[in-house]
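Help needed: design a sequence for this.
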């Protein structure tokens, strides 16, 4: 489906994620689960934990833990949209990538095409499902549920076309520090992160699955030591039922 052209009065919804403030509490992903009744083991929003060797506050080498909230990146050049055989995915004039569930044929081509693990098939509704920035809340002037739930003001949301909005002020203040995940995929994500490559090492990107939904096992407590050693092996063991 073609991309709509924004008019001057059209809001441009945008999200930024300040990893420097994230405490890994999962309030955002839990709020998302509740808001959208996301089925067990499937995710619209997921918080990744990443352990690495770094420096503590005193400058000494120490194990560090970083947190990465992840969701649909609302890509400007979205591979899910191009892959959908029924043209059920569109990027609207307000910058949000949405799925028309009425015409979704559950072919999973969108899931296979997404580099960020953002889409799953809702096993009850039997249609593809992903973050649409809580469009039903935007319609009535509310913020996305994850933004409202975060106790640390990590998720900055608003109308990027309004220079006075929270997102515009955040972008102005932190512009040079902002980055996208997996830039090599060329999807031009509209979700921008602060702290990628510094607070959160880029190695965390390897945990975001390409071609399937977020893995429910990536933050199980009993896999943390193995995750540190070899993330890929752990996922293989879990999937193999070991
Ligand atoms: S993150 Fe995935 S689902 Fe979201 S717009 Fe990009 S390709 Fe599509
Ligand atoms: S709710 Fe906020 S602090 Fe907690 S994990 Fe999500 S983004 Fe991080």
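Sure. Designed sequence:
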């Amino acid at each position: 489906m073609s991309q709509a052209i924004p008019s001057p009065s059209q809001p441009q919804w945008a999200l930024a994620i300040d990893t420097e403030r994230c405490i890994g509490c999962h309030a955002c992903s839990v709020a998302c689960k509740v808001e959208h009744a996301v089925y067990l083991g499937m995710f619209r929003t997921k918080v990744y934990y990443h352990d690495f060797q770094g420096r503590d506050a005193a400058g000494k080498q120490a194990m560090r833990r970083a947190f990465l909230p992840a969701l649909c990146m609302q890509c400007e050049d979205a591979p899910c949209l191009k892959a959908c055989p029924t043209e059920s995915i569109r990027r609207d004039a307000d910058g949000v990538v949405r799925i028309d569930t009425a015409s979704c044929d559950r072919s999973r081509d969108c899931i296979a095409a997404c580099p960020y693990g953002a889409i799953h098939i809702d096993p009850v509704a039997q249609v593809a499902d992903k973050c649409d920035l809580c469009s039903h809340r935007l319609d009535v002037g509310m913020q996305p549920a994850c933004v409202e739930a975060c106790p640390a003001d990590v998720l900055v949301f608003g109308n990027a076309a309004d220079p006075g909005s929270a997102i515009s002020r955040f972008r102005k203040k932190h512009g040079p520090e902002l980055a996208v995940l997996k830039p090599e995929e060329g999807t031009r994500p509209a979700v921008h992160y602060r702290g990628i490559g510094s607070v959160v090492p880029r190695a965390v990107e390897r945990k975001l699955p390409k071609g399937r939904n977020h893995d429910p096992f990536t933050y199980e407590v009993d896999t943390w030591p193995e995750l540190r050693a070899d993330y890929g092996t752990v996922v293989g063991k879990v999937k193999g039922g070991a």
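Confidence is low (pLDDT under 50) at residues 238-242.
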